Amino acid sequence: LFSRVAEERLFSSATFRRLLALLDNYEVLTGHNETVTAQEEEEEEAFLEAVFQTPVMATLSDFFLAKGLYPSEVAFRADLRQMWFGLYSRSGGKALDSSGFEHVFCGELKKEQVSGCHSWVRLYRLERSGELNYLSYSYDGPWTTFPDVLALQYRWRGHLKSIGSTLMGASPEFDLALYTLCYKTRPDRLCHLSLGGKAVTIQTYSWTNSFYGDKQRFVATSYPVSP
Question: What parts of the sequence cross the membrane (predicted)?
Fold first, then answer.
C-alpha cells in the first residue's frame, strides 16, 4: 500500500508523534475489557493538548463557539474527550471494550473481520510491522495532493476488511476536526463538504446503546464515503 512515507518530517510533529503513542494502548479484539492506565490517560491528554494547539482545531473551536454549541473552548475540549475516548461495549455489555477513538483511529477485530480502522497512519504502521496485507483499492479520490480519499481492501492478522476508507495523507488534527464537525452537525447521516474545490462526504454514526453526561452519545464511527 505504501511505497514511501516521509517519517522524519511527518512523525516529528507533535500531533503525529502523540498519535503514535496511543496506537498501542488498545486491545484490538472486541469482547475484552480496555484497561486505561495512568500513563495512557496522560498520553490521551498530551494528544489533545497538541491537537488543540493547531490552527485547524482552533478554527473548529471558533466555529462551534460562534454557533452556540459550546460556551467555551474548555467545554468543547471536555466534551470531545468524552465523545471520542469514553468507553462503551461492542460485545453486548460483556466488556467495556471500545471507544470512538479506538474504532476510527486504531481499528478493531471482531468476528473474523476488521471493524473501523480509518486512519492512514494506523494502516501504514500495520503494513510496516507485517500485520497488514494490502489487497486492492476500489476508489482513489479526485485530488492530486493530500489529503485524498482512498477506499481499499486488506487483511489484518488474517481478518478481512472488504471495504474500508481513509483520508490518505491527512494529519491527525485534520481527521479529528473533520469527523467531529460532521458528528456534531450531521450526526447519523451523510455530511457533504468541499475540500480543495472537490466534493467529499463523511458518514457519522453515534453509539445509541449507552450515554455519557446529559444523555450525550459517544462516537460510534466516522469515515469518508466512497462511490
Answer: none
